[in-house]
Amino acid sequence: MRISPLFLLFPFLAFAQNTLPTFDGVVNPEEWSSAEKHTIEYEISPGNNTPSPVATEAYITYGVSDLYVGFIAYADMSTLRSSIRNRDEGYQDDFVMIGIDTYGDGRYMVSLGANAEGNQLDLKFLPSGNDDTSYNVSYESKASKHQDAYHVELKIPFSVLQFKNKPTVKWNILLYRSTYTADSRSQNINFPIDLNNPCLACQTPVSLTLNNIKAKNRVEFLPYVYGGLSGEREDNTLKFGKFNKTIGLSGLVDLNNVTSLEYAINPDFSQVEADASRIVANNTFAIAFPERRAYFNEGNDIISSNLRTVYTRSINQPLLSTKLISQGEHDRIYWLAAYDEASPYLIGGENGSYFGEGTAAYSSIFKYQRTYKQGTNISFISTNRFFKEKGSGHIFGLSGLWRLGENITAELEINKSFTKEPNADWIDEANEDNDIISGKTVALDGENLRGDGLYFSLERNTKNWNTELEYSQKSPLYQTPLGFVTQNNVRALEFEQGYQHFFKEDAFLKQMNFSLETEFRFNYQGLKKYSSVDAGAYVQFSGNVESFAGYSHVLNEEYEGFDAKGMDNFELFVRFNPSEKIQLRAFTSIGESIFYVESAVGNNFFIGTFNSFQVTSQLRISPSFRYTHLKNKEDGSYYLKGYIGRLNVNYQFNKTLSFRIIGEYNDFDEAFFYQPLFKWNPNPFTIFYIGGTNGYSRIDNQSRFSIDNSQIYMKFQYLFSL
Predict the structure, then answer these.
(1) How far apart are CA 239 and CA 232, in angstroms?
(2) Could you tell me if 624 and 609 are in contact, meaning their C-beta atoms sit under 8 angstroms apart?
């Protein structure tokens, strides 16, 4: 069984509504005397159900409308890792969480917690074993520090959880604590886990029975005002346009305790923080960025897929959108509709992808999922986009996840795509090169296209061994109008065998994982596009040191008639986290790869470092640096060479108020920017910020830089609940 880096995790609990404790961040056992008491006493990483290095007590009780959870986390307070942070940034600290499966079928587990400062952490633990850290709900948390422990209290409204509306409900509960010893990060839960069972949420032996609880139907309004001023350089002068101001409204209405309707009218989906630049100098395929917009994050676990059928950032500038999510006892429904004023257009090819900015479009995503025990499910999905330019795109698909016995999981996805191209010049490179895919032009000239996508995987997990087989295919004309598919005309087969070994508690080595993988890719004409054999080893050492070493032998890689063979690559990653104040990460790789512009094999090298220094409990400095080059094998000249340096400085006044400044220099573009931001963020949805961005580039043939663009902006968004 593969262990997620975040585990959350309770014999049968049944108790009536009792006298509620004072919610003040201090867990007084007398106040919690009527609550059920439990302990977190099993270390699951790096140990394997070994005794936890520190004691943790947990208390659970409830009222009519809220669930109350209290933790007493014992620790050496002189070495406790805990700083004041923004929401969802405390995963590197000592923290506690409770996981709640309101349906008891393993479809997901809502996991809520806090660190010793009371900074909130929330996520969804999914049946695939992954964590959805973009998930956010509104709940209260308070914390306090004592001589030999810290206390955390959580007050969780039943209204933020979806569950069956019955006089008596039964939920599965898991308890979790992450802490640090002198040797390693220690992950602990309240029961021993079975590594032969891939469904962690299904293993909990503890259920919570609640009687006569009420979940108030939420009616929420989220209005915002935004203002900004931007300028660009013209004739060596920075010229500003008119002050841009806008207002909008979004909100949520609970139709009942399992169904919610969200809406957004002229929403502002600008990001608080710019995406970190990536090195793409020798990449022929489009690159995806994570979804950071809160409106789209709820329900992500329903629409996630291995074929990347849905990529919500493809809905770029919606003027109006609605979203309905229903979580029934055996059914889940996701339905989103939007009118998008500027829709991106992506076409996957065999050797690269084509991208353009489209015009307005009507978009919709619908998915129905039937759920069963152990996270098993069967789904139907439909995505549709209709451009005002008369073009359209549609996907219809079936998918499922099945638990076959105790330790085998199978997944299957089948999609059919139907595309009617608009007559438009959105993709410049397609018009210039006149590229052809399976007899159809890449240029958008009104052609009708049909395609299919298929994914199948079979995975077996045991305590020490993990085996996975994956097969996928995407036909030449397959397109996902609201997804992110960058390569088509490909059939891929992958096989991976992994082994993990646990050591004794006092050993220098804490955990070791080995993997061996092979991959083959062919196009639909039978041409072998890529084949490789890879090996890797992950080792966790005493002293909070982790390392990964990998070797890849590329048997062949074909690109536009050029077939490179026998390319070797080595990579090494090291992480050193001796204390809360220092976290160092370094990565390097060396080997051979194709320079696609000239269809030649060169010698590549990459080195990067990503670090964090907690100077005080409120000040964090995070520098990063990435350098790469690709050299001509014959004369040593550079096909490409450059680096990206980035610095993030964050000062946290308290857990809701912060100031940060980001600076980044991109040597490939010979440009840099800096971005200051002052932010107040008391809950996941209310926010006020004011900031700006200045971008600079090098003046031709000079060492000086000149400002290219400048922007000042502010936004105030406030959540009203009725």
Answers:
(1) 6
(2) yes
Tell me which DSSP letter residue 21 carries: P
Cα–Cα distance, 285 to 42 (Å, whole number): 45
Query: Nearest to residue 499, comparing CAs of 467, 472, 473, 527?
Result: 467
Using alpha carbons, list the distances in angstroms from residue 343 to 246, 323, 485: 21, 18, 16
Residue count (the chain): 722
SS3 373: helix
- Domains and their CATH numbers in the chain: 13-211 (2.60.40.1190), 293-350+369-488 (no CATH)
Q: Any idea what the Cα angle at residue 609 is, between residues 282 and 669, rounded to 5°? A: 40
For residue 431, is pLDDT > 60? no
544 within 8 A of 577, measured Cβ to Cβ: yes
CB 120 within 8 A of CB 25: no
pLDDT, averaged across the chain: 91
pTM of the model: 0.89
Of the ranges 69-78, 175-184, 613-622, which one carries the lowest mean pLDDT score? 175-184
Q: Both tokens of residue 155? A: 């007050």
Give the single-character DSSP code of 3. Answer: P
Kind and range of the H or E run holding 675: strand 671-680
Question: Could you tell me the CA-to-CA distances from 19 to 61, 63, 586 in Å, in that order?
Answer: 9, 8, 52
CB-based contacts of 237, cutoff 8 Å, min separation 6: none
Does the pLDDT value for residue 128 go beyond 90?
A: no
Report CA 108 to chain centroid distance, whole Å: 15
CA 445 – CA 235 distance, rounded (Å) = 38
Quote the CA–CA distance of 395 and 311 in Å, as a whole number. Answer: 13
> Measured between alpha carbons, how far apart are the two ends of the chain, in Å?
45
Q: Which two tokens stand for residue 697?
A: 């580039």
Which two three-digit tokens encode residue 163?
A: 């569950």
Contact criterion met (CB below 8 Å) for 682 and 293: no
- Torsion angles phi and psi, residue 158, rounded to 5: -65, -20
pLDDT of residue 249: 94
The Cα–Cα gap between 483 and 305 comes to: 10
pLDDT of residue 3: 45
Q: Can you tell me the distance from the alpha carbon of 370 to that of 330, in angstroms, rounded to the nearest whole number?
A: 6
632 and 638 Cβ atoms separated by less than 8 Å? yes
pLDDT at 275: 59
On whether the CB atoms of residues 324 and 337 are closer than 8 A, the answer is no
Reported as type and span, the H/E element at residue 240 is: strand 237-240
CA triple 495-496-497, angle to 5 deg? 130
d(CA 13, CA 173): 10
- Res. 281: pLDDT tops 90: no
Q: How many Å is the Cα radius of gyration of the chain? A: 26
Bridge partners (DSSP) of residue 364 are 337, 384
Whether 236 has a pLDDT exceeding 90, the answer reads no
- Which of 57-61, 182-186, 576-580 ranks highest by mean pLDDT? 57-61
pLDDT, average across residues 615-629: 96
Secondary structure of 419-461 as H, E, C letters: EECCECCCCHHHHHHCCEECCEECCCECCEEEEEEEEEEEEEE
Residue with tokens 């955390």: 152
Helix (H) or strand (E) holding 296: helix 294-297
Interstrand relation of 219-234 and 237-240 (parallel, antiparallel or unpaired): antiparallel
Nearest to 392, CA basis, from 359, 421, 428: 421
Confidence of residue 237 (pLDDT cuts 50, 70, 90): confident
**What is the arithmetic mean of pLDDT over 55-76?**
96
pLDDT of 9: 36
Pair of tokens at residue 427: 């993709």
Please answer whether residues 517 and 469 qualify as being in contact, where contact means their C-beta atoms are separated by less than 8 angstroms: no
- Tokens 């394997």 identify what position? 48
What lies within 8 Å, CB to CB, of 167 at 6+ separation is 211, 212
Residue 695 CA to its chain's centroid (Å): 28
In whole angstroms, give the CA distance from residue 337 to residue 317: 13
Residue 10's pLDDT is 36
